[in-house]
């Protein structure tokens, strides 16, 4: 149990300490409690009072026996029985719970507003009915006289509440106004401008304050919380707030509760819970949990406070000043009284604890039993001034030794900041420096059992990368800059480091002895800019590339203007004729005409003949146009055939003459 105190108000955190996993067996839990002192001393007021991931809402039934909590993941609701100090049941839901309300005195009637525009009704046995509302709901209130549920949805209102005395319905809007409606006449009866009233002279506000929390107290008082961290207390008879309390964190107010015994208002944002007097606004006490707060629930007529957090465990606080412990955990009063009666012993700064051996070394063993030494455990307490005087007399050179030790430590610290000389290759120096830095980081974070990984610089397979200039990385190329947008900033640091290394190497060559380097502030002076994302850097690189491309185009355009255009001549091959550009224009005109017009033109030229057949259909014959080259080729083939024909005739004539001569012989 953790105890804190502010303004002399003690706050006991009953959820402090380590929690054990649910899947552990009872035997293992008992074994851990025996071994670990923190687990053994922790107080588990309600067993398994937690959610798997996050708890969003927490409420107490009107009879005080049941505590209901909603959370994720998966979306679920859990009911805890305070009389049994354990969980009674758990129900999983289809979607996350925005808020819920317990309509009955116990857990038998519950209404859940879910994020998917669904409203789900549960009875004692489980799910009873489910319906859907037109808009996404943010809050709702139950009107007991008419048994009506009033929902407020997105783009209109954020929160709502019904006065428990005269049942006036109030809702807070996104414009920072509170509208009050009478359910009997269904008309609006008044409007409060809370956004204007929340702005004070010393307040710094970035945007328009919206209403994020609303709570009635009695018939006339109403507290309003804004998204900018202000709480306004109103009397319904006046449009001006009675008091304005600022949390000074600029976070939306999540919950407002009234504590009537001490006239306190308990307001909470996601970071802090503040308790302050509703008449004067003076802070009574406050507490800051470890995790962000989602909801706060004050157990009725007691000093117990419960919170739903952005963590699995739900916190329980007990503040004895606010009231007694609930009857189901009345032992807390006896426990806190015992802690107050027997406070822990403390060791003050003006006393020094020494053992018997320390007294013998200082020569003060004869003081044992006197009033200068107070026996405690295995040693004694003595005045710190007497201790320093005795130590100076026993060892007069202790200060000189202390001074020399401090100087040596300072020198070692400065040596650690010096730039260590590293032998870098001639090619890809930045890549080699990067690999060296990564190896140093791995040596620091690597566990003992892990094996040492081989270095790329010492691997023969990658030896050529740091020797051959053809493998030099071009960091100005478009591919490198787009694939590695964040490397540019890191490379600037490495370039500065390389420059420092080159200067130190030059000094080492000039001097025979190794000079002492100066501390490098290159890395310490510049904080790593991790907040800029990858997308932003890629956009920046693309913008730079477009600018460079634009400059190159302008330079090429200037060069083209400066160069004189010279005419070019083309030679026509043999056997081809030059045709004017008019032929292509005629072809384009002809292609634009319809098929009927082209057929008529072909008939006029004689290349197409259309006639009727005996069966009543049309017959078209056409002649292909031949180019001049095709015509010449056909004429040459015709002449060749004619020459061969004449040759064959002459050969046949000679053969016939020879045959006749032989007959006559």
From TrEMBL:
GO BP term, example: maturation of SSU-rRNA from tricistronic rRNA transcript (SSU-rRNA, 5.8S rRNA, LSU-rRNA)
Entry annotated with the keyword Iron: no
Keywords: Nucleus, Repeat, WD repeat
Compositionally biased spans, kind Acidic residues: 505-515
Residue intervals of the Nucleolar protein 10-like N-terminal domain: 1-151, 161-342
Segments forming a coiled coil: none
Residue ranges, compositional bias (Basic residues): 641-665
A Pfam family this chain is assigned to: NUC153
Family the UniProt entry places it in: Belongs to the WD repeat NOL10/ENP2 family.
Name of this chain's protein: Nucleolar protein 10
Protein source organism: Falco tinnunculus
């Amino acid at each position: 149990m953790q105890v804190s105190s502010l303004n002399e108000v003690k706050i006991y955190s009953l959820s402090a300490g380590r929690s054990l996993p649910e899947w552990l067996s009872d035997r293992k839990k008992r074994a851990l409690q025996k071994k670990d002192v923190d687990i053994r001393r922790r107080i588990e007021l309600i067993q398994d009072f937690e959610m798997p991931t996050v708890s969003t809402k927490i409420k107490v039934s009107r009879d005080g026996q049941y505590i209901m909590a909603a959370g994720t993941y998966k979306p679920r609701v859990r009911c805890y029985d305070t009389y049994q100090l354990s969980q009674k049941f758990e129900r999983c839901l289809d979607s996350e719970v925005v808020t819920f309300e317990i309509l009955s005195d116990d857990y038998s009637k519950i209404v859940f507003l879910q994020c998917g525009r669904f409203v789900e009704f549960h009875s004692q046995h489980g799910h009873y009915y489910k319906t859907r509302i037109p808009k996404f709901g943010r809050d709702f209130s139950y009107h007991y006289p008419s048994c009506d549920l009033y929902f407020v949805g997105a783009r209109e209102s954020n929160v709502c509440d019904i006065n428990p005395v005269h049942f006036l319905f109030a809702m807070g809007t996104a414009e920072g106004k509170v509208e009050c409606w009478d359910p009997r006449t269904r008309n609006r009866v008044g409007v409060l401008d809370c956004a204007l009233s929340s702005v004070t002279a010393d307040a710094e506000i970035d945007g328009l304050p919206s209403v994020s929390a609303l709570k009635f107290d009695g018939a006339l008082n109403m507290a309003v919380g804004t998204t900018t961290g202000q709480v306004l207390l109103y009397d319904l008879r006046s449009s001006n707030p009675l008091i304005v309390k600022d949390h000074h964190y600029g976070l939306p107010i999540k919950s407002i509760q009234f504590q009537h015994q001490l006239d306190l208002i308990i307001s909470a944002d996601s970071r802090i819970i503040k308790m302050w007097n509703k008449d004067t606004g003076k802070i009574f006490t406050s507490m800051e949990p470890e995790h962000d707060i989602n909801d706060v629930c004050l157990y009725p007529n007691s000093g117990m406070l419960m919170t739903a957090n952005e963590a699995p465990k739900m916190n329980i606080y007990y503040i004895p000043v606010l009231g007694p412990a609930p009857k189901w955990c009345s032992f807390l009063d006896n426990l806190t009284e015992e802690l107050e009666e027997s406070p822990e012993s403390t060791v003050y700064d003006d006393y020094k604890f020494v053992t018997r051996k320390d007294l013998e070394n200082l020569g003060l063993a004869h003081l044992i039993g006197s009033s200068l030494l107070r026996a405690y455990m295995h040693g004694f307490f003595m005045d710190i001034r007497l201790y320093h005087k005795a130590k100076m007399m026993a060892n007069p050179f202790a200060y000189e030794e202390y001074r020399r030790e401090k100087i040596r430590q300072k020198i070692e610290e400065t040596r650690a900041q010096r730039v260590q000389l590293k032998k870098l290759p001639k090619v890809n120096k930045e890549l080699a420096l990067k690999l060296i830095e990564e190896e140093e980081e791995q040596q620091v974070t690597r566990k003992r059992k892990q094996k040492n990984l081989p270095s790329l610089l010492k691997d023969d397979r990658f030896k050529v990368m740091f020797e051959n200039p053809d493998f030099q990385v071009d960091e100005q190329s478009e591919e490198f800059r787009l694939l590695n947008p964040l490397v540019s900033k890191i490379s600037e640091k490495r370039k500065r480091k390389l420059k420092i290394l080159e200067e130190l190497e030059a000094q080492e060559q000039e001097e025979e002895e190794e000079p002492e380097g100066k501390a490098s502030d290159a890395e310490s002076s510049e904080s790593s800019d991790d907040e800029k994302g990858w997308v932003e850097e890629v956009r920046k690189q693309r913008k730079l590339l477009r600018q460079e491309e634009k400059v190159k185009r302008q330079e090429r355009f200037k060069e083209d203007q400066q160069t004189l255009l010279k005419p070019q001549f083309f030679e026509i091959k043999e056997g081809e004729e030059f045709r004017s550009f008019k032929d292509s224009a005629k072809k384009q005109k002809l292609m634009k005409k319809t098929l009927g017009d082209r057929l008529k033109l072909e008939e006029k030229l004689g290349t197409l003949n259309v006639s009727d057949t005996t069966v009543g259909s049309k017959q078209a014959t056409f002649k292909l146009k031949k180019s001049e080259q095709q015509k010449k080729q056909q004429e040459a083939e015709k002449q060749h055939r004619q020459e061969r024909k004449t040759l064959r005739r002459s050969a046949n004539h000679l053969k016939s003459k020879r045959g006749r001569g032989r007959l006559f012989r």
